[in-house]
């Protein structure tokens, strides 16, 4: 059974009561219904997932994404749209959280972080201290600690933006322009802009109500 097109009960607007004050007035926290399905269209089901144990539907993903925005202070539409579009692109609309193509050991979470970033991210989470001690230098074990928990799995992209993106890049994203998003992809994420990536950004920006989209 497919979930409703409009995830009103799990909308990304649900966190307005817990969101910190921001210089802008982010529409994402005011919209009564903001469909994650509009941003990640294939996340309506896991029935067709090649790696079903890794798949999350939009309904399952939404609370974790909300939590990550609260934890890492993502308060603008542009930043949120960039994060969601990155996760959707890298995980095939939340179908997997481990790098299977080409299968790089230790690369994963919903934004497909490289192993060094996964280790740093895991080290920032107090609850993983004992697990990290056991994992040692095993990059697959470190990744498993993150992917086993939905909040950590979906929280990596917001953590990365907070800790790795420059203030210039983040300020640009708050304007919501496509040029600012391109700077995020090339200067912060460190990859190239492609038509598929940009299409995902446009979907997310439109669903979030980012001006000009």
Describe the overall structure:
- There is one protein chain.
- The two termini are 31 Å apart.
- This protein is an all-alpha fold and 213 residues long.
- The radius of gyration is 16 Å and the shape is globular.
- The chain is built from 10 helices and no strands.
Features:
single chain; 213 residues; mainly alpha; 10 helices; 51% helix; globular
Low-pLDDT stretches are 1-10, 12-33
Mean pLDDT: 87
Which shape, going by the Cα principal axes?
globular
Gap between N and C termini: 31 Å
- Spatial extent as radius of gyration: 16 Å
Tally of separate helices: 10
What's the helix-strand series?
Answer: HHHHHHHHHH
Report the sheet-strand fraction.
Answer: under 5%
Could you describe the largest sheet, including whether it forms a barrel?
Answer: none
Which structural class fits the helix and strand makeup?
A: mainly alpha
The helix content, as a percent range, equals 40-55%
Tally of DSSP β-strands? 0
């Amino acid at each position: 059974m497919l979930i409703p097109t409009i995830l009103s009960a799990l909308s990304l607007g649900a966190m307005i009561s817990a969101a910190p004050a921001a210089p802008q007035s982010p529409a994402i926290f005011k919209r009564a219904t903001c469909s994650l399905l509009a941003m990640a269209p294939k996340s309506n089901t896991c029935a067709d997932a090649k790696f079903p144990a890794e798949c999350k539907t939009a309904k399952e993903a939404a609370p974790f994404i909300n939590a990550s925005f609260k934890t890492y202070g993502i308060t603008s539409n542009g930043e949120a749209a960039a994060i969601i579009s990155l996760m959707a692109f890298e995980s095939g609309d939340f179908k997997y959280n481990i790098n299977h193509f080409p299968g790089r050991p230790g690369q994963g979470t919903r934004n497909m972080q490289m192993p060094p970033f996964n280790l740093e991210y895991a080290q920032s989470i107090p609850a993983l201290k004992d697990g990290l001690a056991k994992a040692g230098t095993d990059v697959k074990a470190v990744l498993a600690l993150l992917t086993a928990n939905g909040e950590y799995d979906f929280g990596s992209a917001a953590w990365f933006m907070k800790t790795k993106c420059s203030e210039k890049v983040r300020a640009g994203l708050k304007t919501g322009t496509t040029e600012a998003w391109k700077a995020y992809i090339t200067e912060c994420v460190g990859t190239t802009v492609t038509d598929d990536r940009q299409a995902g950004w446009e979907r997310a920006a439109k669903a979030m109500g980012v001006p000009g989209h």
